[in-house]
Amino acid sequence: MLDKTTGALRLSEGIEIGPRTDFTATAELNLGNRPEVIGFVDAENQQVHFRNVRVERSFFTFRMLFSYNRLLVLELLVSPLPIPITSDWQDWSFEAEMQHLEQCNAWLQKQVGNEREFDWGCIWSGYDSLGGYSSIKIKYY
Questions:
Q1: Does the global pTM surpass 0.85?
Q2: Integer CA distances (angstroms), 63 to 11, 24, 36, 88, 94, in order
Q3: What is the pLDDT of residues 1-53, one digit of tens each?
Q4: CA-wise closest residue to 77 among 96, 56, 57, 104
Q5: 71-105 in b/e burial notation, b at 16+ Cβ within 10 A?
Q6: Which of 45, 65, 111, 113 is surrounded by the most beta carbons within 10 Å?
Q7: Are 41 and 47 a contacting pair, CB within 8 Å?
Q8: Phi and psi of 134, rounded to 5°?
């Protein structure tokens, strides 16, 4: 799914997200549930969010941060089940989030092994204690 040579994440035939991904083309895609586009062409701050995109046997949420149409950061959440879209914290638990972090770490290990720095960028996974969630982030150079 993730090409270690190019940094491109292949979602399906003909659909990739990577260092050459353009804001305009990405904003026109309709992937997953409730796609969200923030910003406009040639703006300094642009974002595209796709939720619950099914790729192979997993569900992903993608948050892409662009600047002047160029992809800078791809954040992804991965889960074997659809990721709930809610603002309710009632079902949240630290233990469940640590299990999600383990899923992120396992996915990252499967995709790139122990490498984290590449010619095209760097990749890591972690837990955001302020946001209360775990994710994988790719920063493109």
A1: yes
A2: 14, 15, 9, 20, 22
A3: 999 999 999 998 889 999 999 999 999 998 998 899 999 999 999 999 999 99
A4: 104
A5: bbebbbbbbeeebeeeeeeeeeeeeebeebbebbe
A6: 65
A7: no
A8: -110, 145
